[in-house]
């Protein structure tokens, strides 16, 4: 035990050192530019020379040593395509603020001690994901290896531009690669239990209150297609993925019963506007849903987070084909459903073979599945609704009057035979109207206008095209008609191969690509004060402001005891307390944990259970002798948990 006592004494002496005696030799001392301020200026200059004059700037907080480095991440310099940037709301550069409490000296150490904050344009849905990536990058040794060649700031921007092109290919929470079929054009979460548990919180980060108002039509459409799928006789096949509410699987009939009670989102926002608000936020929306069913908010979260297509209602000045799709009878949307990898392949096929436009019609109940898995070939699968007389592949048509027949509900299609139909199944039951929105009609007709790369192998039989390569078909627009507003005879003259039709659609696509939503610049003010950290983080590092923690660079028992002393000084940290050594062994600690995050369901449940037991959670941590080369082992001592459940006893 003498070694433990000596270590304790040494740690106590270390804690009593004055700030004047504290010294830390950072890696920056080996840099050719000895002065940290000069090195920072050089790094800023390198950034501006490579990424633009406003890509990096430095500022300090008045009366403080705090340094703020602001990086501008320009999405157009990243590997993300124009369609992807549009779907993610990347209409302007992202601003990343790196805060160093110890000024340029702290920056030179390669340790961003006061945090990284990313500010994204309104409607952007990947700002938080980019922030997570930058935080992980600055914690990793990667940026330190690159700093001596081009500088830390250059390495940070280069990494951000590299990763932004693949955000949809990794989990938005843990950054692990997504399994096949999980990737989409929208940020997704992997199937790991921890990430799935955070899905509810993550979903709320996707859309803000303003974006909710802009998406009222989109939400009404998503709910309507899901409801029709749940009410269909084919629900077992087309209600995919299955409905899961707060971790519990819900059958199609039960899901339909909940969705039948949904109000119109446009009406919810009208109520908010009548009350003097610009739009209804999540709290108001969930409050309105709770009035109709206690599971309705969970159903909305599931619908929003499972949707993998980018849908935006077209504003009046951007609508197209008004002669056959007037606003009174038709809602129009931009629809992008291909993941970035498939987008890139389509772009390559289009550049090589050229492209044409064509229609794809399908019953409204099928679109719940299409919006989540993309437009795929259903030939020979249980999703096939009609025959495959012209072969296997994605069926499209250059004639709107032909596609409109396939957009009728299965119940109406049963009344008459369709070209190529294999046989008549039992008719669908009548579906009542469920709210007063445009999409509340039980007879919606949904047609997609697609762009088709004219690759070899396409079967063309009059106005019917069969595309065997799914990547050669990209959805561009979605047209939603109510009831019999558009008859096949009304669209008889509309053909996508007509030069005038092709010019009109391509002009609208080009206009939408160049359109940018207005972003109100923030007023120029004094630099903000450094973020106020929680007491636990503020007291974690000993020594003068900006100095790295004392345990940095140590290994084994010295590292363990240095961290122990730092944790013991967290006097005002309410969540971790009663830290002690077990049997005077430096490698084994015990501590209590309480007051979990009440913003997530698991945290609320734990707080409720512990309040009933009137005890905190007691944890034990065991360190290996070569820590931190190998990780520690953590276990719960008390209270014990019921086997195969999450309940405490």
Helix segment tally: 24
The largest sheet, given as strand count, sense and whether it forms a barrel, is: 5 strands, antiparallel
Give the overall silhouette. globular
Got a strand count? 18
Q: In percent, how much strand structure appears in the residues?
A: 15-25%
What is the helix fraction of residues, given as a range? 25-40%
Q: Strand order within the widest sheet?
A: 7-8-14-11-9
Average of pLDDT: 75
Contiguous low-pLDDT stretches (5 residues minimum) are 1-34, 200-211, 414-425, 516-546
Explained architecture:
The chain has 649 residues and is of the alpha+beta class. The protein has 24 helices and 18 strands. Strand 5 (244-245) and strand 6 form a beta hairpin. Helix 9 crosses helix 16 (296-306) and helix 11 runs antiparallel to helix 13. The radius of gyration is 29 Å and the shape is globular. Mean pLDDT is 75; it is low at 1-34, 200-211, 414-425 and 516-546.
Question: How would you concisely characterize the structure shown here?
Answer:
With 649 residues, the protein is of the alpha+beta class. Residues 1-34, 200-211, 414-425 and 516-546 have low confidence and may be disordered.
Give a topology summary.
Elements: H1 2-15, H2 36-51, E1 56-60, E2 67-73, H3 82-88, E3 94-100, H4 103-108, E4 116-119, H5 127-139, H6 142-150, H7 152-164, H8 193-197, H9 199-206, H10 209-214, H11 216-231, H12 235-238, E5 244-245, E6 248-249, H13 252-259, H14 265-274, H15 282-290, H16 296-306, E7 310-313, E8 330-336, H17 340-353, E9 355-363, H18 367-373, E10 394-397, H19 400-406, H20 410-413, E11 444-453, E12 459-461, E13 464-467, E14 473-482, H21 499-514, H22 535-538, H23 556-568, E15 576-582, E16 585-593, H24 601-613, E17 617-622, E18 633-638
Antiparallel strand pairs: 1-2, 2-3, 3-4, 5-6, 7-8, 8-14, 9-11, 10-13, 11-14, 12-13, 15-16, 16-17, 17-18
Helix pairs in contact: 1-23, 2-7, 5-7, 6-7, 9-16, 11-13
């Amino acid at each position: 035990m003498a070694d433990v006592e000596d270590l304790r004494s040494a740690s106590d002496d270390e804690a009593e050192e004055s700030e004047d005696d504290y010294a830390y030799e950072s890696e920056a001392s080996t840099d050719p530019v000895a002065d940290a301020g000069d090195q920072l200026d050089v790094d800023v200059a390198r950034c501006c020379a490579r990424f633009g004059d406003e890509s990096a700037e430095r500022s300090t907080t008045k009366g403080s040593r705090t340094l703020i480095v602001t990086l501008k991440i320009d999405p157009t310099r990243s590997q993300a395509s124009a369609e992807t940037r549009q779907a993610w709301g990347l209409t302007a550069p992202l601003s990343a603020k790196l805060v160093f409490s110890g000024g340029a000296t702290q920056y030179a150490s390669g340790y961003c001690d006061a945090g990284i904050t990313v500010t994204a344009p309104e409607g952007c849905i990947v700002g938080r994901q980019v922030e997570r990536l930058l935080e992980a990058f600055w914690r990793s040794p990667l940026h330190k290896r690159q700093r001596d060649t081009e500088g830390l700031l250059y390495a940070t921007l280069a990494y951000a531009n590299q990763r932004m092109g693949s955000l949809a290919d990794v989990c938005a929470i843990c950054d692990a690669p997504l399994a096949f079929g999980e990737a989409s054009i929208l940020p997704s979460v992997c199937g790991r239990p921890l990430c799935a548990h955070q899905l509810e919180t993550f979903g709320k980060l996707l859309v803000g209150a303003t974006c909710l108002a802009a998406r009222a039509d989109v939400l009404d459409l998503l709910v309507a297609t899901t409801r029709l799928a749940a009410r269909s006789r084919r629900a077992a096949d087309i209600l995919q993925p299955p409905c899961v509410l707060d971790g519990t699987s819900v059958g199609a009939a039960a899901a339909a019963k909940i969705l039948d009670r949904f109000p119109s989102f446009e009406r919810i926002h009208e109520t908010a506007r009548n009350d003097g608000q610009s739009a209804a936020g999540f709290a108001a929306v969930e409050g309105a849903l709770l009035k109709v069913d206690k599971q309705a908010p969970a159903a909305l979260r599931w619908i929003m987070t499972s949707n993998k297509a980018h849908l935006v209602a077209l504003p009046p000045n951007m609508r197209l084909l008004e002669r056959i799709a007037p606003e009174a009878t038709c809602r129009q949307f931009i629809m992008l459903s291909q993941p970035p990898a498939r987008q890139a392949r389509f772009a390559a096929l289009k550049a090589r073979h050229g492209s044409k436009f064509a229609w794809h019609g399908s019953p409204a109940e099928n679109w719940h599945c299409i919006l989540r898995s993309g437009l795929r070939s259903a030939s020979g699968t249980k999703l096939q609704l009609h025959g495959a007389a012209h072969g296997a592949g994605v069926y499209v048509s250059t004639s709107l009057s032909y596609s409109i027949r396939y957009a009728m509900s299965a119940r109406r299609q049963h009344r008459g035979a369709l070209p190529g139909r294999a046989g008549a199944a039992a008719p669908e039951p009548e579906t009542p109207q469920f709210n007063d929105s445009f999409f509340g009609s039980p007879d919606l007709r949904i047609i997609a206008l697609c762009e088709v790369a004219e690759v070899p192998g396409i079967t063309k039989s009059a106005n019917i095209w069969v595309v065997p390569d799914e990547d050669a078909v990209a959805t561009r627009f979605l047209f939603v008609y109510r009831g019999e507003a558009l008859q096949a005879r009304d669209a008889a003259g509309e053909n996508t191969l007509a030069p005038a039709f092709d010019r009109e659609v391509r002009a609208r696509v080009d206009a939408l690509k160049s359109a940018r939503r207005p972003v109100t610049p923030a007023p120029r003010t004094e630099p903000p004060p450094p973020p106020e950290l929680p007491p636990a983080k503020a007291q974690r590092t000993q020594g003068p402001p900006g100095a790295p923690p004392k345990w940095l660079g140590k290994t084994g028992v010295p590292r363990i005891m240095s961290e122990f002393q730092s944790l013991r000084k967290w006097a005002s940290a309410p969540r971790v307390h009663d830290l002690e050594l077990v049997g005077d062994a430096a490698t084994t600690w015990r501590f209590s944990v309480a007051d979990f995050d009440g913003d997530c369901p698991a945290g609320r449940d734990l707080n409720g259970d512990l309040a009933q037991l009137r005890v905190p959670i007691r944890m034990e941590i065991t360190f290996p002798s070569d820590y931190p080369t190998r990780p520690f082992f953590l276990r719960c001592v008390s209270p014990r948990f019921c086997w195969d459940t999450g309940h405490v006893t």
